[in-house]
């Protein structure tokens, strides 16, 4: 018998009616003879309600108690889903993270899973029960309740699938799979049947936020076959798996983009060792995350240093740089907060030359000026003016053959 | 240093503002150097909300999952109260029943406490922390979440006080103590400074529902000094304790009454062994609780058999009796669902004769006809017509000197 781990997010279990629909879906799978372990999130809205209560009491709620509070959200869902399964005549049993137990470190509100005890779950599965587990939560070695941070239920599901050596881990969500790009920007975007873990990681971190990035990393590390599919529509979704050598893969799997970035340049910086850290450390000290970094080749004794940050941090970063600029005796600071980053992602690029030049030519043909370029093994990112987003995505989507059926 | 267990019910922690008030009260006690363990209920309304969700899914929700669901109510409160204490600069730590751990049997929705591990609590108290514990819940030996049934938070508090050998267990509620009778019926009703466990048990089971009866039994068994007091008003409340021999006690401590009863008589029953069980078993089989039972002395070969049930069960019981009546070849079934039971309660009655006759005379002087009488060591109950309730209670309150200050 095959073992599957199903994960349902907050929207999928947001009402009693939806919980009943989810129960039907699970029962159907169970009736086909599969062993099913279900991981659930809090009903949508519940986490915000609880956070609201906490914040009425403490401006920065105590993190240990915050975990105690938030973990009740999934506990409510798991009990209701188990009841819904019983109502359908399907034997089921629910467990909190602590009951399983899912052992984590003690970093409250963003704990990491260390170990999962699969004994109870296996015993229940053998008795023919569906096992419902609270996502997002665990316990530390002293029995304190911990939570895994936003989106942690995906991580719970993947970790359980790894521990149980499940055949597949299904992440049910409100989209029916991973697309070649955002269909709201390119209506010709196609759902992918398969994507590799590495491609998925690049897609996720670049803004196609279907899955929590930690869950994908985890799935890659422990070789868990992950499938993203819709809670509401029938369909096979997208399978996230290892690159298969025999498979004739497309060069490019998808096009990701990020509208939330801003770009800053400090020009005329003395080209000396340690200058990069002198610029970036004051920014990092303010907890501002830096994304792309580019340093142009210096042709006199100075260099231009450019990087991108989240658009919300633009003004703050600019102020920091003004100070740095005068300290380093640099020329001036410039910036632009109406840019976007567009990336093409694909493992195929490893074995094919000329992808970058194709990309640049496509953009040039459309008259789009590239402001920054950054590359990795399986992705190429460019920064362009915000107004070119749709034009660039659509042109690239077509040029790399993503409009066509696989 | 003294150890106190404080218990706050759902109304006392019903809003964020009230939780803050409770935190202030606890901090004040802590600042005086006492060790404080707090037991909390779910915020008022929360248990009903959760039960409502469950019942939308299952008509008779699975009892194991119901416990999983309901136990989240106290967990939310304990986290919020701990945060409120932190906000006041008072170190605090919260624990679920499972975390403590409070070991129970596995009778879901009405489990009984078997054992409490006090290690974590003692360690925390020694570190100067206030310990906040979820009331109403525990775990069975397999780690399944259990609940103690309605009012179970009182039981948790008393059991913790017993385990910790606490100096006193304070039950904070919306009344400021135990009264000689219901002040809504007799405005001269007085708050008692002290009452014995046995009197409290008789008062509680007779309708003066200040405390859960199991908690009082538990407190009596383990010699826990229990104090009932108001969450909202200052005051010393009522101490529930053992009878003190040196204390010159009043004859009667209080007058309890119950408006929810109905009375049924099956007349002309053959006076044979086993007849009582033939009458009562079919009633008990329908889960109808029987309160007072009276069998009149038979002066021919037949007897009249009378008992009381909850008024809601009146018609159902009458139907059962009609069947029994024809089976036993008895004369007829009569009944009355507009009666009340009034009881005088006091350990003083043990050592004083004539209490019953005083009671009957007081009622006779007011022209009140007594329909049934039942007595125990420390209480005398009578059934009278409903319309005489206020008159009877006030006359007895005065006659037994309860109007006067102690």
The number of helical segments of chain A is 12
Largest interface: which pair? Answer: A-B, 36 and 36 residues
Oligomeric form: homodimer
The CATH topology label of one domain in chain A is Carbamate kinase
Largest sheet of chain A: 8 strands, mixed
CATH class of one domain in chain A: Alpha Beta
- Placed side by side, the strands forming the largest sheet of chain A appear as 3-6-2-1-9-11-12-10
- What is the CATH architecture assignment of one domain in chain A? 3-Layer(aba) Sandwich
Full CATH superfamily name of one domain in chain A = Acetylglutamate kinase-like
Between the first and last Cα atoms of chain A, what is the distance in angstroms? Answer: 31 Å
Low-confidence stretches of chain A: none
Class inferred from helices and paired strands of chain A: alpha/beta
Helix content of chain A: 25-40%
Strand-residue proportion of chain A: 25-35%
List keywords for this structure.
alpha/beta, homodimer, 35% helix, 406 residues, Carbamate kinase, four-stranded antiparallel β-sheet, globular
Q: Care to describe what's here?
A:
The structure is a homodimer of 406-residue chains. By secondary structure, chain A is an alpha/beta fold. Chain A has a domain of 171 residues: Carbamate kinase (3-Layer(aba) Sandwich), CATH 3.40.1160. Chain A is built from 12 helices and 20 strands. In chain A, the strands form 5 sheets. In chain A, strands 3-6-2-1-9-11-12-10 form an 8-stranded mixed beta sheet, with helices on both faces. The first copy, chain A, has a 4-stranded antiparallel beta sheet with strand order 13-18-20-19, sandwiched between helices. In chain A, β19 and β20 form a beta hairpin. The longest helix of chain A has 25 residues. Chains A and B meet through α1, α2 and α3 of A and α1, α2 and α3 of B.
């Amino acid at each position: 018998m095959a073992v599957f781990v199903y994960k349902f997010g907050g929207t999928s279990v947001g009402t009693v009616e939806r919980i009943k629909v989810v129960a039907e879906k699970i029962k159907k799978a169970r009736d086909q003879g599969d062993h099913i372990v279900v991981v659930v999130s809090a009903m949508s809205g519940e986490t915000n309600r609880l956070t609201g209560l906490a914040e009425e009491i403490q401006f920065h709620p105590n993190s240990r108690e915050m975990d105690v509070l938030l973990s009740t959200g999934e506990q409510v869902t798991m009990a209701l889903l188990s009841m819904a399964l019983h109502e359908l005549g399907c034997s089921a049993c629910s467990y909190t993270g602590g009951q399983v137990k899912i052992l984590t470190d003690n970093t409250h509100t963003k704990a990491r899973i260390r170990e999962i005890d699969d004994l109870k779950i296996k015993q229940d599965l053998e008795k023919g029960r569906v096992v419902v587990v609270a996502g997002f939560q665990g316990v530390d070695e002293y029995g304190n309740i911990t939570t895994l941070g936003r989106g942690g239920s995906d991580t719970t599901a993947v970790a359980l699938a790894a521990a149980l050596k499940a055949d597949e881990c299904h992440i049910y969500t409100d989209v029916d799979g991973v697309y070649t790009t955002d269909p709201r920007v390119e209506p010709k975007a196609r759902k992918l049947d398969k994507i590799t873990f590495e491609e998925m990681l690049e897609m996720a971190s670049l803004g196609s936020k279907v899955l929590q990035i930690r869950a994908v990393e985890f799935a890659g590390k422990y070789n868990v076959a992950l499938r993203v599919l819709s809670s509401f529509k029938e369909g096979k979704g997208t399978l996230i798996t290892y690159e298969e050598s025999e498979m004739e893969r497309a060069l490019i799997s998808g096009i990701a983009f990020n509208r939330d970035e801003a770009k800053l340049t400090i020009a005329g910086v003395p080209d000396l060792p340690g200058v990069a850290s002198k610029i970036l450390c004051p920014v990092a000290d303010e907890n501002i995350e830096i994304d792309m970094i580019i340093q142009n080749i210096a042709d006199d004794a100075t260099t231009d240093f450019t990087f991108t940050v989240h658009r919300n941090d633009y003004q703050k970063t600019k102020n920091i740089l003004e100070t740095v600029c005068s300290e380093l005796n640099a020329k001036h600071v410039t910036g632009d907060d109406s840019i976007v980053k567009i990336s093409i992602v694909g493992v195929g690029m490893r074995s094919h030359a000329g992808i970058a030049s194709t990309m640049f030519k496509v953009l040039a043909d459309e008259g789009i000026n590239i402001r920054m370029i950054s590359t990795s093994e399986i992705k190429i990112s460019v920064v362009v003016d915000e107004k070119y987003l749709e034009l660039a995505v659509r042109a690239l989507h077509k040029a790399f053959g993503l409009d066509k059926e696989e």
